[in-house]
Amino acid sequence: MKAYIVTDYTEDFIATNGKLTTDEAGQKLEQYIVEQAEKHLNEEDYIVFAVDIHDPSDQFHPENKLFPPHNVEGTSGRNLYGTLNDWYQVNKDSDQVYWMDKRHYSSFSGTDLDVRLRERRITEVVLVGVCTDICILHTAVDAYNLGYDITVLERGVASFDPHGHEWALNHFKNILGATIK
Ligand code: ZN
After folding, report:
1. pLDDT at position 135
2. Beta carbons of 127 and 6 less than 8 angstroms apart
3. Domain residues of the chain, as ranges?
4. How many angstroms separate the alpha carbon of residue 106 from the centre of ligand 1?
5. pTM value?
6. What is the C-alpha to C-alpha distance for residues 12 and 79, in angstroms, rounded to an integer?
7. What is the distance in A from the centroid of ligand 1 to the CA of 128?
8. Neighbouring C-alpha atoms within 13 Å toward the C-beta of 31
9. Which one of 14, 70, 127, 169 is CB 3.0 to 4.6 Å from 26, fit for a cystine?
10. Cis previous bond, 135, omega within 30
C-alpha cells in the first residue's frame, strides 16, 4: 500500500485567475493527476489531498509576509481544480480518500499524516501537485527524514519557476534517493 499525495492542486494555485497561480504549467498536469488518482484508488492505495489553509490576518504565519493571500479558509480558491474536483466529489466518501488541511509547505508539518501512514503500514509516498520546489520539496525532505520511500511523478509536478522545478527534480533523485517516474 502506497500513499498518493496530491499537493495544493487548487483553484488558487492552478486556475488562470487563481491568487497564486502556476497557470499553464499547473494546468498541464490535470488529466495525469486524475488518471493517477483513479489508478491508485483501484490499487487500494491511500489518496491524500494535502491542501493549504490560510488566514491572511494571522500576523504570526510566515507565509503572510512572503506571498499574497491564497487558499484562504472558506474561499473557493481552496477547491480542487477542474476535473480533479469532479473526481474528488465522486470518491470523497471512500475510506481510501483523505482531505488534509495543512498550514505549512510540508504535508507532514502540523498534520496527522505520518500517524495515518504508519497506521496503514504505508512505507512509500508518491508525490504530485505544486510547487515542485516548494511544497513538494518540503514534503519530500520530511518524508526522507521519516524514512519513507519516495516517488515523484514528473508529469504530475510543476512550479512557477522552471529552474526551481529542474533543481528540485535533481535534488529528489540525487540527494533524497527518490524514484522519478
Ligand atoms: Zn501557502
Report:
1. 98
2. no
3. 2-180
4. 10
5. 0.97
6. 8
7. 16
8. 2
9. 14
10. no
